[in-house]
Each structure stands twice: as structure tokens, then as C-alpha cells.
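Lecture 7 notes. Example A: sequence first, then its C-alpha cells.
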Amino acid sequence: MKEFSYQRPGQVREALALAADDGARFLGGGTNLVDLMKDGIETPTRLVDVRGLPLDGVRDAPDGGLVIGATTTNSDAAAHSEVRRRYPALSQAVLAGASGQLRNMATVGGNLLQRTRCGYFADRSQPCNKRSLGSGCSAIAGEHHNHAILGWSDHCVATHPSDMAVALVAFDAVVHYETLDGTHEIPLSEFYPPVGETPQRETMLPSGALITAVTLPGAAASPRSRYRKVRERASYAFANVSVAAALDVNEGVVQGARIALGGLASRPLRAHAAESALRGAPATADRFGVAADAELSAARPLRDNACKVTLARNLIVAVLTELAHPAE
């Protein structure tokens, strides 16, 4: 690990000023950044610890939604009674990620900024366009069984690791951030750019920007929602495939649906094609399969991960069936 300075400001504007220098990084729980520093993948010259800023907690929004502060720990967000009541899929998604100890340290803002767990990204001896643009993507011809089947490019086939972000996309969450120029916001659906030819750019945040909160709109509150993931071991592991979904069913007919997918692309994906295929349709397993097929028709599996298409289809159908026919 290279030498760096450490500072802990008490106010947001002070933190922004400290992070204005090239080489500075914000530090939340450090559960991803510190590991990358140990491996020499991240080499900041200054860490600006934001855990002391007044940015934690969950509160009501004027529209009936919730505001979750960026330094709120994952554990606190998942355990909050209103998160569990209004947006249960979000609580489930957070609890599905990492261990209890890591959730106690990790922050909501940091979770959204975590970087891919592709083994080639973490191995400096291997080419990786995320680390060095133009060097190539080792995963395309190498080990890629848990890499992307949707939206990937010849420059990168890595997947986004966050469980939380998948649920937040399903609920139309908005990211709030500050720069030295003022306050800003961006829908989470636009927060992660397509991988395209710029895999090194993982978010749309300007340089030096600090995430301050995430808001969940009141209109998206869905007490009947679920998050499920398929993973390679029952203890904490990153998703092969994950689904966050909410379903509004009246007299056996789907009035509306919210579906987001994880583990399939470089970013969490809102399943717009599947949602469209469900509106006004019967809430049956057959129709859920049709909706899943509509979403997955664009899949481009790699040599060793075609199983993800089947996993995703089966998981979408299973989650929607659970929502349409909850246990008595």
C-alpha cells in the first residue's frame, strides 16, 4: 500500500475542498476501497473520511417516500422499520449482500460506488481495460462464467456487484450529491453508464463529487416486493443472477410491475421489456415466462455463461409467482 494522507472533516463543504486535489478519495466504511489499496489497484494520495459528516439516518420525504443518508450503514438501512414496511425488497437486498460485520461498516453511498469483483480487475499482472484502457479484457477469452450476458462490449464483460443498487433501481431511486458548485441529483437508472468503449468510467458522478443521500419516491413504495439472488454458496457471495420485483395484481390481472436485474450486466438493469409485457396480462406463471423471455431476448452469452439465461428466466418467474400468489 502506498503512502497517503488521512483527514476527517466535520462539514460537507470542508470535505469537498479536501477532495478537490487530484488523487484524493472519499472514505466511508472502506470495505471495498481499502482492499483495492492493499492490492495496489487504488492508489489515492489522500483519504477524506466522510463518516463524521452529518449524512446518516433515514427520514420521511415530503412525497411519502424515504431519504436515506449516504453514510447510513447498510445494517441500519436494512433494519429500519419504514424501509422494511414500504420497500421490503431493499431490506432483503441489503441483507443478501456481504456478512453482518461488513454490513455494519459499509455505507449506502459507498455501496453504490463499489467496484467490480472481476478477478482480472484485481490482478495487476493481467490486462484489464478498467485499470488501463486499451490493454484489453482478459475475461472474454478467460474465466467468465459469472460475467455479463447483457449490455457488455468488447472492452469489458464484468458485472456490477451491488445487491442494494438492484433494488434501488426497481424503486426509481434518485442519488443526491454535492460538488463545490452546489447540490445535484441523478436517477439511479442513469447513474451507471453503459460500458461501451469507456469501461473505466463506472458512474456519472463528476470528479470530486460526494454522494449525500438516496431518495426513494413515495409513488414507488411497494409493500409487496421481493429480492432474491442465485449465488454459488449459501454464505455471502456475489450474485450469479438477482431479481428485485414488485407486483400490483387485481383480480388476477397485473396492473403494474417493477423489475430490476443484477448479476447480468455492468450495471443494475431495469427490466422495461418484461414490465411492458406484464401490464394488463394475467398473473400466471406462463405469462411471467413470456415477460422474462422478452427481457432476455437481447442476451449475448459468452462461452461459459449461457446458464445465466436459464437462471434469470427461472428466477424472474419464481419471484413474480411468489408476489402474485403469496402464502396465506
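Example B, a different protein, same format:
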Amino acid sequence: MLRNFTLGIEEEYMVMDPSTLELCSHEQKIVEQAHKVIPEKVKAEFHQAVVEVGTHICGNIDEARADVAHLRKTVAQIAGDLGYSIGAAGTHPFSKWEAQLITDHPRYFEIVNEMQDAARSNLIFGLHVHVGMENREMALHIANSVRYFLPHVFALSTNSPFWEGRNTGFKSYRTKVFDKFPRTGIPDYFASIEEYDRYIQLLVKTKCIDNARKVWWDLRVHPFYDTVEFRICDVPLTLQETCTIAAIFQALCVKIYKLRMQNLNFIIYNRALVNENKWRASRYGIDGNLIDFGKEAEVNTRALIFELLEFVDDVVDELGSRAYIDYTKEILQNGTGADKQLLVFKENKNLHSVADFIIKEFLKDC
């Protein structure tokens, strides 16, 4: 059964000038060199200062960890040889989007033409986790159910407190930047895969989109693969954080699946309610309160994350992800990437120190 719940991980990295620590164009040199040693796993993104990597289909979290570690080390090595530095954070601490070049590709020019400054300013870096499904019907069922937990895991990933040289007051400002795009955020509930497909067909028919890839929700049934794709998280500073978040998403999918096999289900909550928790997670990370809708009360975010860990505990050993899931407690104790960035800024009063810290953390645990 568990062979269905494969993993695929995508991360977006920032390319920086080692001397100024500003974002800079690598003129696709990193991608070109990477294709020679790891074909199909590294690609350009909308802005020329971004490199995206993606693992192969991984049978378990150990395999995914090895693949992401290899990707981080390879990209860092290639970038260094070409005179660039690489880092992972949801936003750059001080570089301005107005100065960034757009990748020369018809698809990106089309997006700019349609969305204008909403697209040009979308200088953000995310983590996408794919969990394999046996079919699209099951994928939709799991997506409907797991929406409730998105803010909890998102809080653990928060890693973008700065934007264009300012402390935004948010632990994840990346999500605020992305909110300008259409078809983003927590998805609606769909009663069936047919209802979901009719929704997509209507958008295509009315020329809102030309294909289902332009549905950019925080969680989606992937339009072409049999996966549930989690898109809500900031890209984490470190490999270990990335793997912990991926392991949690995988465990949640397996837990919901097993409940379904017992004719049980996790309660479905309204999108508007889940959005309240997403906003709190983006603002406060793990340091605030989320709403426990069952109790109809505010509850400490850390306490709710511990409840999440208890919820999935009976599937963790079967998945072989105990060590990764347990690392959640380290994040809760020592802080998220945002907390660590803010601590560096507090100690140094200098955003260049924050950018340098992001670079130094990139290969930690690799």
C-alpha cells in the first residue's frame, strides 16, 4: 500500500553575488552546467536570479533526503565555480524586485503581459512537495481533508521575514507577495473529482487559464501527475527542515488514507476558517496561536503542532520517517528559518549578515 505514497521535492534557490550578496542573474549558466551532470533536475525560473531543482520520484524519505542533498551540493558547487553564491529563504532580505531580470522565455513573457507588476514583483522562493496517489479520486479526498493542517506545517516552514530591506513583521512575507496572483491560497472543497474537473474546464473555456498548471493553490491535485502537491511552504534554510516538512506531508496523506479505508474521515472545515489560521501562521510562525475549530478556541501553535504529530504517529514508523518527524521538536525549540534570520539581524543590526547567514546554512546537514 505505502508504495503509492512516493515523494517528489522541488526547491527554489536564490542566486547571489558573493561580494554584494545581492540577487543577480546567472544568465542560465548554472542550469546549463547542471544539465551536464544531473539532467532534467535543474531548471530556470521566472526571474533570472532563481534556480529550481526537483528530485526524481522517491520511494521513501531517506531516498528523497539523499536526492535533495545531492541537488543542493551540486548546485552550490556549480554556482561557486561560476562565481555565484546560493541560498534558500522565502524572500531575499534586501534585494529589490525592480532590479531583477526576467528569464527569456515565451511563457514568462505571457505571464508578465497578463499580470504586469503582480508578476514582476513575485520574487519569492518556495518548497513544493508531491505525494504519490493511487488515483485522482483518492488524491482529491486527501486534499480536501488535509487542508486543515496546512497552516500548522506552513508555520514550521516560515522563512521570509524581510522584504526589500525591511523587517515586515511577518514570519512569512512570501505568502503576502504571492497573494497578488489569482487562484492562490487555500483551495475550496470539491465534492468529487468530476466537480473539480468541471471547474478547470470552465476556467479554460472562459479563457481564465489555458491549462490547469495556472491554478496555483497552496495544495492541489496535480493536473498531470497522480500526486497531491503541497505548495504552501517557504523554502527552508536547511536540508533537514525540508525533509521534515516533506515527511509530515507524507504522513498526513497516509493517515487520511488509512482513515478512509476504515470508512472514517477527518472533519472538513470551511476554506474561510482555514484561511484565518494561514494568516496567523504567516504573521507569527510558531510563536502565536491558531484556532482549534473543534474547541472553537485559540490554542498555542506549538501545542497544535504536537497534536498533529500525535495524529500521524501510528503511520510514521511504517513510513520510516521517525527521525525526520522527531526533528519537528528541534524546530519548535530552536525556531524556524524566520526566527533564525531575525536573531542574526538583532545581533548584527545588518541585513548583509542575514544574507550571509542564509548562504552558510544552505549546505548544513548535507
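Note on Example B: The longest helix spans residues 239-261. The longest strand covers residues 7-16.
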